[in-house]
Amino acid sequence: MDTYRAPIDAIRRAMRSVGLEDVLSMPAYAGVDAETIDAVLEGFGAVAADAISPTDQHGDEHPPTLDPASGRVQVPEIVAGAFAAYTSGGWNGLSAPAEFGGGGLPSVVSLAVHEMFGSANMALSLNPMLTQGATELIDRWGDERQRRVVVPRLVDGSWTGTMNLTEPDAGSDLGAVRTTATPTGDGRYLVNGTKIFITWGEHELTENIVHLVLARTPGGPEGTRGLSVYLVPKFAFADDGSLRERNRVWCRSLEHKLGIHGSPTCVMEFTDAVGELVGELNTGMGAMFTMMNLARLAVGVQGVSVGERSLQQALAYATERTQGRAVGARSSQAVAIVEHPDVRRSLADIQTTVDAGRLLTYATAIAIDVAAHAEDPEVRAAAQRRADLLTPLAKAWTTDQGVRMASAALQLHGGMGYVEETGIAQRYRDIRIAPIYEGTNAIQAIDLVSRKVVRDGGRALSELLEEIERSLESAGDVGLAAPPEFLSGLESAIRVVSDVTQWAIGSWEADPRAVLTGATAFLELVAVTTAGWLLLRQAVRERDPAARARCTARLRTFHAEHLDRCPSRSQIALGASSVDAALDLPGPLSR
Ligand SMILES: Cc1cc2nc3c(=O)[nH]c(=O)nc-3n(C[C@H](O)[C@H](O)[C@H](O)COP(=O)(O)OP(=O)(O)OC[C@H]3O[C@@H](n4cnc5c(N)ncnc54)[C@H](O)[C@@H]3O)c2cc1C
Questions:
Q1: Are strands 208-216 and 159-164 parallel, antiparallel or unpaired?
Q2: Angle, CA 325 vertex, CA 321 and CA 330 arms, to 5°
Q3: Would the pTM of this model clear 0.85, i.e. be above it?
Q4: What is the pLDDT averaged over residues 545-564?
Q5: Ligand 1 centre from 440 Cα, in Å?
Q6: Measuring from atom 30 of ligand 1, which residue has the nearest CA?
Q7: Which of 27, 72, 282, 409 is disulfide-compatible with 314, CB 3.0–4.6 A?
Q8: Cβ atoms within 10 A of the Cβ of 366, count?
Q9: Checking phi first, is residue 464 left (phi over 0); if not, alpha (psi -120 to 50) or beta?
Q10: What is the percentage of the chain residues whose pLDDT exceeds 90?
Q11: Considering only CA atoms, which of 530, 550, 531 is closest in space to residue 539?
Q12: Taking Cα atoms as reference points, which of 574, 497, 556, 553 lies closest to residue 528?
């Protein structure tokens, strides 16, 4: 039986090790203490395990349905019940500002809640994930009326929000967006176009949906510079929030997908739909990045969510399934497969990688909190640089690892992993989307090397590497028996990252193709170095001897499974592989 238990202790330890106390010491969180956060984690952990997780398989087997005549999309009743348990418990607005009815808690707390939600039912968790992004976008960029009317309804969960970027010809390249927004002269716009792949674009879980739509005003600049964000509600609303007429935005079809079957992925058609501008004209990419950056981090944590649940399932299966004899045993008695050394190695790898991904994503959330609330402007600016640098790592590395972990957990189920009844196949199918949406992982790698490293002259990355070096120097002083191979592996990873960074900065002008050929490997190198450092810091800060011994053992595993591979990745990161010559392309490259 596949049941989920919220890993509260691991979550709490991870939060503390990445700097929760520093965040709580800021005046913005004066009223928040560690006990309140513990209560939130435990309270939501119980909801995730008892109310949400039992709906996961049902949602997978009974996807939402569209009635083409009415355009209505319906989800199974028990999934709707799980959503209601979530919103009625007040879990949706944990980190939203108190002035809008939110809990005013640090974002790392809502990220931890999102992690548990994603373990319990990833497809359903996408709905609040996008709603929280929409809340942040409107709070930061919206006008007074939009903030006053819309934000509290998104916070209390009576409305939801969507993100409408993708079109048939505009995926990774949003400059190709064709949807138009034409001014009507009374401050409103008529939006026309088709958006595809829109997550939770239509449903009846709430009374209204606000679509945040990237569109261009006719006659404006080409490319991304001519894009703006428009708020297009499913139902128009008055100043007091009461609903008016149905808007001309309709779900035309639902996608049939590999995984996350419980999430309706909609083709949305806008036909003279009435919308209002959010922010200034032609600032759409900046505004959308408010939502996308949060969503990228939240997608990153899905790798942890699914890794954690896959681990729990694999551990349970490995202790139940008997096969083969214990190594060196004379008895012919079959043993549980967890007795086999290679099964244990794989479980330890998954366990360690879940920890590493959790630390990386939570550290990103902490940087976001410090960037928003520290009193000293220099501290805020440094934290913003750190958050910007870590976001693509948290999104791409953690989701790639999520796929790898789900695959490893499936493998541990043998043939029973490939058939559906154990439930592990759903983990693998569900997590496969995470490296694709919210900017594919290749786009994250390009963002890292071009914007976050080359454009800033390597400043944010050098600050990070210097901090890692300081941790390495002091690791011995605190009496931590860190495995020597881990320490030297981390040292050499720092050197590799430094060398590749210098090369990328120096080569960018003359040979950007070579730098971009190495982008994915570069991201992996930086992520592994950062995650390894965060594991080391956690081990150093751990006071409980048993927990510290576990951390030390995980450093050894992390070295063997991740750090040790860094030198071999450096060649491709340096753009040294002859990819063009290696390919048999059907025709010449278009340049
Ligand atoms: C289930 C699901 C839910 C989604 N939800 C939403 C949503 O709610 N809202 C929304 O707006 N969109 C959503 N999307 C769309 C998603 O964000 C896009 O699919 C994604 O950004 C990739 O765009 P694309 O599919 O057009 O692929 P393409 O852009 O065509 O990419 C194809 C391949 O080429 C690579 N590639 C493209 N350009 C480059 C480049 N410059 N350098 C290197 N490699 C490149 C990509 O990495 C990828 O491997 C969703 C998609 C799915 C499948």
A1: parallel
A2: 150
A3: yes
A4: 93
A5: 6
A6: 171
A7: 409
A8: 23
A9: alpha
A10: 89
A11: 550
A12: 497
What mean pLDDT, rounded, does the chain reach?
95
Q: Which residues have a Cβ under 8 Å from the Cβ of 268 and sit 6 or more positions away?
A: 164, 194, 195, 196, 198, 201, 202, 211, 249, 250, 251, 252
Helix (H, G, I), strand (E, B) or coil at 145: helix
Tokens 């799980």 — which residue?
82
- Residue bearing the bigger pLDDT, 329 or 520: 520
Alpha-carbon distance values, 222 to 93, 169, 276 (Å)? 37, 15, 21
Q: State the average pLDDT over residues 369-385.
A: 96
Residue (of 305, 173, 284) closest to 227 by Cα position: 284
Distance of CA 437 from the midpoint of ligand 1 (Å): 6
DSSP annotation of 451 reads I
Helix and strand totals (H; E) in the chain: 20, 11
Give residue ranges with CB within 6 A of ligand 1: 163-166, 171-172, 197-199, 257, 265, 433, 436-440, 442-443, 446
Give the span between the Cα atoms of 17 and 483, in whole angstroms.
19
> In the numeric block, which tokens belong to residue 337?
């497969």
Q: Which of 438, 524, 542, 561 is catalytic?
A: 438
Which residue type occupies 555? Answer: L
The residue nearest atom 26 of ligand 1, judged by CA position, is: 171
Per-residue pLDDT, averaged over 352-366, amounts to: 98
Average pLDDT over residues 60-79: 97
438 is catalytic: yes
pLDDT at 473 (0 to 100): 87
Minimum CA distance residue for ligand 1 atom 19: 437
List, in order, residues 6 or more apart from 326 with CB less than 8 Å away.
335, 339
The answer to whether 427 and 2 have CB atoms below 8 angstroms apart is no
How confident is the model over 210-235, as pLDDT tens digits?
999 999 999 999 999 999 999 999 99
Q: Measured in angstroms, how far is the CA atom of residue 18 from the centroid of ligand 1?
A: 31
Query: Are the C-beta atoms of residues 321 and 337 closer than 8 Å to each other?
Result: yes
CB atoms within 10 A of CB 18: 24
Closest to 160 (Cα-Cα) out of 213, 211, 197, 107? 211
pLDDT value at residue 479: 61
Phi, psi of 228 (to 5 degrees): -135, 165
Q: What is the average per-residue pLDDT within 56-85?
A: 97
Q: How far apart are CA 439 and CA 26, in angstroms?
A: 33
Residues 208/249, Cβ–Cβ less than 8 Å: no
Most confident of 363-372, 560-569, 581-590: 363-372
In the reported structure, the alpha carbon of residue 195 is separated from the centroid of ligand 1 by a whole-number distance in angstroms of: 13
Answer whether 362's CB lies under 8 Å from 108's CB: yes
